[in-house]
Design goal:
216 residues
């Protein structure tokens, strides 16, 4: 049971996983996943802050649930706890089930924001459903499965990944708000200067790329 929850990872290793997923292998600035919502909702810091928190919550929660789905439903031999022979192989449905879990969480989050935080819900508008197809959220679940993380390291990894996406969109939103009052060449206004700025931020984060803190 301990191996399933924590495995061979120590407390220091968990800190390493968190820092690695937050800075060194940032889901957006290292893998460039989740760019659509990042570009669409980063014009204002307030909107970016709300969307970043929403993505963090969805990545952490859906990543945790998808871990249980993988361990007890879709993993090779995971359905051995059911008294059915031969054992059904559900691996081919794993991607679809992961997407369904994410979509369900986004719907729940949308209802919560609509009832408890109407201004934020209106600010996000049509971009909120984009969280469902945000590849960074699905990527976090798939990366944790490929790396065979136990439960607690998986939660730490998903939380660090969500905070990494949040950090990236807040950084670019704060810069884009300042660029509004700056003199920018006409041909670079809009997405042009945004792509250049994102590239420069990604280069800064790539300075950590040679560091590996994920050790058991």
């Amino acid at each position: 049971m301990k191996r399933m929850w924590l495995g061979d990872y120590s407390f220091v290793s968990l800190i390493g996983i968190f820092i690695q997923s937050l800075f060194i292998q940032n889901i957006l600035l290292f893998y460039f996943l989740g760019m659509c919502s990042y570009l669409a909702c980063s014009t204002k810091l307030k909107t970016a802050n709300g969307l970043g928190i929403a993505v963090f919550v969805v990545i952490t929660c859906s990543g945790t649930i998808n871990w249980f789905v993988h361990q007890f439903i879709t993993k090779d031999g995971a359905l051995s706890w059911i008294p059915i022979r031969p054992i059904i192989d559900m691996q081919y449905l794993e991607l679809i089930i992961f997407i369904a879990t994410i979509a369900a969480f986004v719907q729940i989050l949308e209802v919560i924001l609509d009832n408890l935080f109407p201004p934020l819900y209106r600010a996000l508008g049509v971009y909120l459903p984009l969280i469902t197809v945000n590849c960074a959220i699905l990527g976090a679940s798939l990366f944790s499965v490929v790396r065979s993380y136990p439960l607690i390291p998986n939660i730490v990894f998903c939380a660090g990944t969500g905070l990494g996406w949040y950090l990236a969109i807040v950084l670019i939103a704060s810069i884009r708000e300042k660029l509004t009052y700056s003199e920018i060449p006409k041909n670079l206004k809009g997405m042009g200067i945004t792509f250049i700025t994102t590239g420069l931020i990604a280069l800064a984060f790539m300075a950590f790329s040679g560091i590996n803190l994920i050790k058991k």
